[in-house]
TrEMBL record:
Keywords: 2Fe-2S, Iron, Iron-sulfur, Metal-binding, NAD, Translocase. NDH-1 shuttles electrons from NADH, via FMN and iron-sulfur (Fe-S) centers, to quinones in the respiratory chain. The immediate electron acceptor for the enzyme in this species is believed to be menaquinone. Couples the redox reaction to proton translocation (for every two electrons transferred, four hydrogen ions are translocated across the cytoplasmic membrane), and thus conserves the redox energy in a proton gradient. CDD domains: TRX_Fd_NuoE (cd03064). One of its GO terms (molecular function) is NADH dehydrogenase activity. This is NADH-quinone oxidoreductase subunit E. The keyword NAD applies.
């Protein structure tokens, strides 16, 4: 999506949001009633209602925000304040598949930066932009609490763990070609609109999808196992970079995180050894001092 497609505020009053077609409005009102009934105070239903309107149009439009305000007795300013605060709400039409590359600290140093750069080049889009066919929106995402599987890519909030620039490129090619892709763990992938409806609190109707959500993965559980004495203290899920750990006990296959290829095969720009005061005698105090100090 080019800059010219994006909403640009000129500081002028906007026309009232267009109305939903009657059939859509009736359906959304019935859904909203069901959502609101789950909460003791109706305004607590705002977050799921924003997901609900996102499931209709693929983003939270002004029409969607006006709908939420009407249903909950809020002002559109109050709804807008919430919708613009959380990054899971999109503010303009976007792709069927939101490909989020975690470039937060750990994923970045494990290859997330390299993945993001490769996908930008491969797809010909920048951050928060959509391919011309409307299939894929690429974006930076913050930590998704999956650091033990870094570097992580998420498609419509499903995990694709331990990615490389090559595997991520294959992933987006498969999405664009309409081939089935399987998340590393969790429920099967669905479109962004379908995901938004599930996030609004409606059941996932696909057979086996709920069961597939599963629990924590092996890489997340190893600390718990160590604490319980169920794993050898030296056990490692991933060995030190560039060397086979000596004197360490490998985790049993059922405990091992999926890790193909090795993270050493997809180094990011952050992987170069950093000088420390011990390795850089010319600058024993660490970072350079301010000029004049
Ligand atoms: S830094 Fe990427 S999931 Fe935490």
């Amino acid at each position: 999506m080019t800059a010219s497609n994006q909403e640009v505020s000129l500081g002028m009053p906007q026309l009232p949001a267009p109305a939903y077609p009657a059939e859509v409005l009736a359906r959304l009102e019935a859904d909203a009633k069901e959502v609101i009934a789950r909460y003791p105070g109706s305004r607590s239903a705002l977050l799921p209602l924003l997901h609900l309107v996102q499931s209709e149009e693929g983003y939270v439009s002004r029409t969607g925000m006006a709908f939420c305000a009407d249903q909950l007795g809020l002002t559109t300013a109050e709804v807008t304040a919430v919708a613009t605060f959380y990054t899971m709400y999109r503010r303009r039409p976007s792709g069927d598949y939101q490909v989020g590359v975690c470039t937060n600290t750990l994923c970045a140093v494990m290859g997330g930066d390299a993945i993001f750069d490769r996908l930008k080049e491969h797809l010909g889009v920048g951050n928060d932009e959509t391919t011309d066919d409307g299939k894929v929106t690429l974006e930076h995402i913050e930590c998704n609490a999956a650091c033990d599987f870094a570097p992580v890519v998420m498609v419509n909030w499903e995990f694709f763990d331990n990615q490389t620039p090559e595997s991520a490129t294959r992933l987006v090619d498969d999405l664009i070609a309409g081939r089935t892709v399987e998340p590393t763990r969790g429920a099967p992938l669905c479109t962004y609109k379908d995901t938004a409806r599930i996030l609004a609190g409606f059941p996932d109707p696909r057979p086996g999808a709920v069961e597939a959500s599963g629990g924590a993965g092996a890489a997340s559980l190893i600390g718990l196992k160590l604490a319980r004495g169920e794993a050898a203290p030296q056990a490692r899920v991933v060995g030190p970079r560039g060397e086979t750990p000596r004197g360490t006990k490998d985790v049993q296959p059922e405990d091992a995180a999926p890790h193909d290829p090795s993270p050493t095969e997809h180094l990011s720009s952050h992987d170069a050894p950093q000088k420390t005061s011990a390795s850089d005698p010319e600058h024993p105090a660490g970072p350079a001092a301010e000029e004049g100090e």
